[in-house]
Amino acid sequence: MDNRIKKIVIAGGGTAGWMAAALLSKTMGKVLDITLVESEEIGTVGVGEATIPPLVTYLRLLKMKEQDFMAATQATFKLGISFENWKDVGEKYFHSFGTTGTDHWTAGFQHFWLKDRDRGSKSEYGDYCLELVAAREGKFGHLPKQGLNYAFHLDATLFARLLRQFSEALGVRRLEGKIQEIDTHPETGYVTSLKMESGQVVEGDLFIDCTGFRGLLIEQALKTGYEDWTHWLPCDRALALQTESMIEPVPYTRAIAHSAGWQWRIPLQHRVGNGLVFSSQYMDEDKARDHLLKNIVGGHLGKPRLLKFITGRRLKNWNRNVIALGLASGFVEPLESTSIHLIQQGLIRLMQLFPHEGIKQSDINEYNKHSQLEIEYIRDFIILHYKLTNRHDTPFWRYCRDLDIPDTLADRMRLFRETARVYRVREDLFKENSWVQVMFGQGIMPEQFHQVTNVMSDDELTRFLQGIKSRVDNTVAKLPPHQAYVEQYCKSPA
After folding, report:
1. pTM (predicted TM-score)
2. φ, ψ at 98 (rounded to 5°)
3. Which tens digit of pLDDT belongs to each residue from 109-166?
4. Which residue, 336, 425, 440, is CA-closest to 128?
5. Residue 303: Cβ within 10 Å count
6. Which of 38, 204, 282, 413 has its CA 20 to 30 A from that of 2?
7. Cβ atoms of residues 164 and 154 within 8 Å
8. Phi, psi at residue 17, to the nearest 5°?
């Protein structure tokens, strides 16, 4: 029996489906037959319009020119996220990409900043981060040796369209239509084919489920199961609305907390993406719609669109011969823009473990193990934003403040509070500096810092910190305004 994997069937288009088609066809299109099935009648949820820096790597893997991608998706640059009203109403902080200051091999830069603070300095931790200061000043430019860490704000629908063109040019076959039935092997339980409403049968060796929350293959056919995280992340609704641009786009996302969730503002070249994430336990849909409409600027491009979701993860992302990507694999709310990244990581993991000679349980186990760890670390990072708050002005925030959190997160918070230390393991998407910025921003002030900081005299520490700040300020001073750079680098047709 020939168990080799030759035919790949991707069920569903959207961002997840076409990201899969593009990377598979670019990497292994010469040895695989790739078919994508989607229906124009089924609207895509879209996994968001804000991204994180690993997407830069994805474009490089495709050998896609960044300017072309940005012009096609009306993209702007993103240097981080401004968090407003999270620690408390009226307070804000910034989670930037990149690093802050200069680490010592024994201790991160936060220890040196804490030592400086301990002796009376009023400097902010973010003053020593290039990306943060550039964002604050509304500036952007490419630097030598990838000296500036960035991501993108983009139109997810246009991104999927671009990837479709890219994939079809490399031989991916697209079939229009709805899936009516999913046939499975009576003995193995493997999916053997998809039967379309048209009567056409699509056979495959390996199936990639990109059918969104429905999980037509991974759940409805294979009954994989789902782990619900609503008790930790109670937001379960989102309203999305596009508006006209009224001001020049800033190089960061705004995440503005409200009484029962938060609002996003994502600036693209020709419009602004707005949305309200909320918990239906604490805010009904009418109140959410009213809140959103009262807190946006610019003419409406359409009507608010309601999305319902349950935060959590599929118990297996790879089950038999089906691999779930995107919303079919699970969902952690969009607060830190991780959805597209999880698609990308799932694809890269699949490539590394690709079952050319037939599916092996050891590969499945390895894939699922790392997928689970990765999304659980992201889950912990998102919970941190809600748990670590001084807000007690509404029932929602009192619930979040009093949460019983996972031990993995409790351990991280305790370690930082007691020692100012953070740690990172392989599967953790967010680097040490991300954890430090959010824990500082949400209000943890460590009880002590590493004594290696005492090796420096006061004058030496001052020169060390001033040297870093001067380099940051001088670099930012030379950067052009973000809008001017976008227009020169990747302007989209109106």
Report:
1. 0.95
2. 90, -160
3. 999 999 999 999 999 999 999 999 999 999 999 999 889 999 999 999 999 999 999 9
4. 440
5. 9
6. 38
7. no
8. -60, -45
Q: Are 171 and 27 spatial neighbours (Cβ–Cβ below 8 Å)? A: no
Q: What is the pLDDT of residue 27?
A: 95
Q: What angle do CA 211, 223, 204 make, to 5 degrees?
A: 55
pLDDT band at 470 (very low <50, low <70, confident <90, very high): very high
Rounded Cα distance, 173 and 204, in Å: 13
- The β-bridge partners of 152 are 77
Would you give the DSSP letter of residue 127?
G
Give pLDDT tens digits for 26-57: 999 999 999 999 998 766 655 458 999 999 99
Residue 261 and residue 238: Cα distance in Å, rounded? 10
Task: Describe the chain by its helix, strand, coil percentages, rounded to 5.
Answer: 40, 20, 35
Whether residue 6 has pLDDT greater than 60: yes
Q: Which CATH architecture has domain 7-49+155-229+311-359?
A: 3-Layer(bba) Sandwich (3.50)
Burial of 228 (0-12, 13-18, 19+ CB in 10 A): exposed
Nearest to 282 by CA among 192, 437, 396: 396
Give residue 109's identity as a one-letter amino acid code. F
205 contacts: CB under 8 Å, gap ≥ 6: 4, 5, 6, 7, 8, 321
Distance CA(312)–CA(378), nearest Å, equals 11
CATH 3.50.50.60, the chain: domain bounds: 7-49+155-229+311-359
